[in-house]
Amino acid sequence: MTTFLGIESSCDDTAAAVVRRDAAGRAEILSSVVEGQASLHAPFGGVVPEIAARAHAERLDHAVSAALDQAGLRLADLDGIAVTAGPGLIGGLLSGMMLARGLAVATGLPLVAVNHLAGHALTPRLTDAVDYPYLMLLVSGGHCQFLAVEGPETFRRLGSTIDDAPGEAFDKIAKLLALPQPGGPHVEREAGGGDPHRFRFPRPLLDRPGCDLSFSGLKTAVLRARDELIAAQGGLTVQDRRDLCAGFQAAVADVLAEKTRRALGMFPAPVLAVAGGVAANTVLRARLETVAAESGARFLAPPLRLCTDNGAMIAWAGIERHLSGAPANADMPARSRWPLDEAAAPLIGSGKRGAKA
Predict the structure, then answer these.
(1) CATH number of the structural domain spanning residue 346
(2) What integer pLDDT is reported at residue 351 of this predicted model?
(3) In terms of domains, do 227 and 274 share one?
(4) Can you give the pLDDT at residue 257?
(5) Which residues bind substrate (predicted)?
(6) Mean pLDDT over the full length of the chain
(7) Is 349 annotated as a binding residue?
(8) Domain total for the chain?
(9) Which end of the chain has fewer CB atoms at under 10 Å, N or C?
(10) pTM given for the model
(11) Binding residue per annotation — 188?
């Protein structure tokens, strides 16, 4: 058996978990602690990096202690520690890595630096013991990619967003419509009472081949529709807001469904998996499940608690890397940008910090 502690602090969730892999390769989540920061960032309409970093520094040791207590283990019972090294907000990443390195030095345990995106991408193996290869749609607040997952360190990008990620777009739409943050759940809730056909928003890049996506223009179209309503009637009604949300959500679902269909054509894997915070959207899940069925692929989505950032996925990614015989990487620096497929050409600006995706 192999037991790892996972530490996650890439954005605004302070998380720690203990995961065990048995001799047959089956995973068991012994504990999972996630301390959200939504109340700290709510007054600002989005995540404030400095506030997030300070909160991580204050809460990480408590989260680790709680995860060990829930698992009924001590540090001495572990076989290793995994920590998110990127991509993400640099202050939060440094908070997690400093704690993890301190624990590793104090205990002599091996330390594995994990790509946050690999944690999401490997979640189907944590929850369902899926064999390689499989197709992963990683759809979150900061990322949207189609990945051919061929091994614990082998990810081939088939397509990606060229601007906003869907989760980012959901948050921006929520802000435009004076809904609370994080925006995804609130937009979905409003959309449930709306008419998705009232506003015909664009479906970006469907007129181009391939699996790349774009959501910036869709966000702008919603903004213009909102402003036209306000100019015409002096404000928005409750139904206006619901219909705007429903139209936006329908456009996102249409785009992701069609691009997923194309990705399965490019990489006809037996399993289509989805992960990331936007994977919690029930409308999107239903559309992707239909696409998978039409393509003859098994559809997998993690439990809702594992869609958003968590330490369990980091612990499992650490276990997979540790057991694969990959070179030690404990000295890796924190990286605000760290694409999974570093051989792929960057689709989003690449500067001194490197390619974003």
Answers:
(1) 3.30.420.40
(2) 43
(3) yes
(4) 96
(5) 138-142, 171, 184, 188, 281
(6) 92
(7) no
(8) 2
(9) N
(10) 0.90
(11) yes
Q: What is the pLDDT of residues 261-284, one digit of tens each?
A: 999 999 999 999 999 888 889 999
Quick one: 343 and 249 in the same domain? no
Task: Give the C-alpha separation, 133 to 210, whole Å.
Answer: 20
Residues 225 and 78 in one domain: no
The DSSP bridge partners found for residue 344 are: none
Asked if residue 154 and residue 71 are part of one domain, the reply reads no
Residues 121 and 173 in one domain: no
Among the three residues 304, 322, 338, which one is the final residue of a domain in this structure? 304
**pLDDT for residue 47:** 86
Claim to verify: residue 154 and residue 103 sit in the same structural domain: no
- Alpha-carbon gap, residue 344 to 81, rounded angstroms: 29
Q: Flag whether 254 is marked binding.
A: no
Say what the pLDDT of residue 280 is: 84
Of 276, 260, 256, 8, nearest in space to 140 by CA: 276
Q: What is the model's pLDDT at position 348?
A: 59
186 assigned to a ligand binding site: no
* pLDDT tens by residue, 40-58: 887 887 788 889 889 899 9
140 is annotated as contributing to ligand binding: yes
The model's pLDDT over 328-352, given as tens digits with 9 standing for 90+, comes to: 788 899 999 888 888 877 765 544 4
Q: Does the annotation list 342 as a binding residue? A: no
What is the DSSP annotation of 241-299?
HHHHHHHHHHHHHHHHHHHHHHHHHHS--SEEEEESGGGG-HHHHHHHHHHHHHHT-EE
**Contact, 191 vs 242, CB < 8 A?**
yes
Is residue 281 annotated as involved in ligand binding? yes
State yes or no: 167 annotated in a binding site. no
Residues 188 and 159 in one domain: yes
In this prediction, residues 213-233 reach a mean pLDDT of: 94
Range of the domain at 269: 134-304
- Does the annotation place 350 within a ligand binding site? no
